[in-house]
Q: What sequence folds into this?
């Protein structure tokens, strides 16, 4: 089972760090898409299906909270898991009504293992079952 992921951050370097973390964490990633802000993210979602979004909050044009609000008000994307990776403090974000729409939160800077663990907490059960099935099938030969 591969999942498609959209990484939204206005800093190309941070997007690369997140994508590298995803790639070294296992073989669960299908396609990984990138966007520099919420508007670009919505354009990606017009043509591509994703199973998970990892987004920053502080971005130009459309910030992460605006993106989250937009996605959660759309029936197609309302159940999409969203991980917020940001330098904004948790207490600050908890004051926004969109806070309740976030699946997980991770503060920058972060250790790659932290992001990996959060992703696995979201997709873990299904991924673990699929991985275990593949290992048992390999052992049959």
A:
């Amino acid at each position: 089972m591969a999942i498609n992921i959209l990484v939204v951050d206005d800093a190309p370097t941070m997007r690369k760090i997140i994508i590298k973390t995803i790639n070294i964490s296992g073989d669960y990633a299908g396609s990984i898409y990138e966007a520099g802000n919420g508007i670009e993210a919505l354009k990606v979602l017009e043509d591509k299906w994703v199973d998970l979004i990892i987004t920053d909050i502080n971005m130009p044009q459309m910030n992460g909270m605006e993106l989250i609000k937009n996605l959660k008000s759309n029936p197609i994307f309302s159940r999409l898991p969203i991980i917020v990776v940001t330098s904004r403090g948790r207490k600050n974000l908890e004051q926004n009504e969109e806070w309740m729409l976030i699946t997980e939160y991770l503060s920058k800077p972060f250790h790659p293992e932290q992001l990996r663990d959060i992703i696995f907490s979201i997709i873990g059960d299904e991924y673990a079952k699929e991985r275990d099935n593949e290992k048992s099938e390999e052992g049959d030969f």
User: Anything to note?
Assistant: The beta strands are 3-8, 29-35, 52-55, 82-86, 104-107. The radius of gyration is 15 Å. The chain has one domain: 3-139. The chain has five helices and five strands.
